[in-house]
Structures are given as C-alpha cells and as structure tokens.
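SECTION: protein entry
WANTED: fold as tokens:
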Amino acid sequence: MAASFTIGVTVPRIKLGVEGLEVSKIGLGCVGMSATYGPPKPDVEMIKLIHHAVDSGVTFFDTSDFYGPYTNEILLGKERKKATGRRLIEEQGTAESKSFFFIFLHHSLDRFLLDYTDFFAASAPYQALKGGIREKVQLATKFGVRMKGDTLDIRGDPNYVRDACEASLMRLHTDYIDLYYVHRIDTKVPIEVTMGELKKLVEEGKIRHVGLSEASASTIKRAHNVHPLTAVEAEWSLWSRDLEQEIVPTCRELGIGIVPYSPLGRGFLAAGPSFIQNLCESDFRKRFPRFKAENLEENKKIYESMCGMASRKGCTPAQLALAWVLKQGDDDVCPIPGTTKIENLNQNIGALLVELSPEEKMEMESYASSDVVKGERHAFMSHTWINSETPPLSMWTPHK
C-alpha cells in the first residue's frame, strides 16, 4: 500500500512536564537497532538513520542500559571513526588498501574497521551525535533492569541509581542525560528513596529531567512529591489501553508528559501477522502472548480492519495506528515508535498529517476493544505498572 502522507511534513515541538523539556512530537525508539528484535543492525546504517531523523526534525531518542545490554547506548554515544572498505579504497586508492580490502572481504570488513579504526588514520570521523548534533537532540535513557538467567532483576537502591547513571554517561559520551527514567519499579525500595537519589543527580547536573516507566498512578504521585516528573513512559497503542483509566488522568492532573512506547503494537499494527510469523528465533517478540499462534489467528482480524480503513484514507496501517496515538494529546503525548529503516521513519513522520474524526477514532477502537484482543500485552506482565507499588518510606533501612 502506498503512503501518501510522507512529504513536506514539519515535525512540531512540544514541552513535556511542568519543567518544559522540549522534544519533537514524535521520538525514535532505538532498542531494535542493537538488541531485542533480532540481531544487531550495522552501526553505519543505524547512524545514518539517526542523522536522517535529526535532519527530518525527530530529535527525541529513547534508549536504555538494558538494551544490548549497553550496546544501544554505546551506539548513540559512538565516538570512534568509521571507514568502510569502499570508502577506504575511494579515499586512499592505494594498492595496499585494495589488497587489504579483498583479503578481508569475506570477514565482515565494515565491522572490523568500525572496531579497529586506529589502524586507519585517514578515515573520516563518524559519530551518531557528531558536530553539534548533541545540542539539537534530547537523549532519554533508562536504568534499573538487568537479566539474571531468564528472570529480570530490578534495582532502585541509591548506590545502584548513581552507578548506573555514571556508566550511562560514559557510554553515551555526554556530560548530561536529558531525561533519565526508572525503567522498572523496584518493589523492594520505597520510590521516595529512588527519587531522592535521582534528585541529587539533577542537582549535580548529570541529569536534567526524571521519568518513570511502567508505574502505577499511586507510585507516580509519590515520586512526583519528591521531585517533579517530566514524563511517564508506558505502552500505549490502539490495542494496549490499560493505562487510560488511572495513569493518564494522574499524569494530566500533575502536568506530566506521556511517552507511549510500542505505539504500533510491536510492529503488528504496521505489518500484520505475516510479519510476526516470519520473525527470527532471536526476536524477543516471539515470547509475547498476543503473537502465539492461537491468539494471532484472532488478532489478525484487527490488522485486516486497520488495512481497510487505511485504504479508504490513503495512508498505511502504520500511519493510521500512530495517528490514533498522536490524537490522544496534542501537547503532552510523544510516542516513540522504533524502526531500523529510513523508509519506516518517513512513514511515521507522515502520520502527523493523518486526520481522524471522532467517528473514525471510535471505529478504530471497536476493532481492538478489550474483548476482541487476545493475549496479554507483555511477556513480563508482573513487571509492568500493575505490580509497581513500593513499601512506605518509613520501612526503609539504608544499607551500610
């Protein structure tokens, strides 16, 4: 299906939170570049995508120390030099370089050169956030989640908060983080304790704004009482709407921005069941309940309905799904769809031009009502907002 909403789009700017972090109306989720959704993508291609995003007006980038782990932050902070085999030949043109190229042709030369560029003094600088780009973008990263075997280990104690921040600053090669999220809530530590350390990091200039991810309304309120929250990141899409009853109203009451992750239903609302069925074995989405065979058979009807409306409106299903999220709030909602392809990024930006009448929004919501969607939205539901209450501060005993 051709996308007609892709050209001549100016990406608006909005301000998140009472402290006014200015970001592009659409952000870019970076996790798929390095981890989770199949093998890591070539750094050179991902850096081109990042530069294209900035040139297109998308300046809000979302990562985490959990992605890789660590490699996604390293990609965004990359300060090494880049020289592909082709460029090396074009720039130096020597017999020696050509010989080198052919020797390593079948040994992933581009990857080799990215990791060992000290050998090539003539190669050009190639950074994800090179030459003034850092000042144009807003970097959001997260902490608090580690894998221990097949289980998630959640940490929010003060020492861990500080150590994680210092490590992220080093990997990102930056002096400050624009928005630092608690990735998941440590239910063993009062949220006031975690927020207290984050407040210190703000005062020290290491982070500028604080956010929570997958937090309940009561946890949001308690955290906000310690230090103003700029944003709450939560899964929000046409078929994932469990935050609407309490979390969204709480954020709006307190003036907190909302950053929807997976606004395209982890790719399903953009590409449908065949896309999910063809995922590689290392793709984490294969573990999600909605993509199990018995649920996928029912859920494909949602995508089919989306395709019908998208065809009538002259846009893609992805643009339609993203437009629905964008219409949930003109000045306090900033979705962060992820992609590894420039074409898909352009389509996502084009969603800004898709208009939806109240009747069309209601029709779309009927496609994916709670009784229609089959399967839980997440593979680790126990680590989402539904289980994010923390002990009262009075119960906290600091470790010596």
About this structure: The mean pLDDT is 88. The two ends are 61 Å apart (CA to CA). Residues 189 and 204 are 23 Å apart (CA to CA). The longest strand covers residues 207-213.
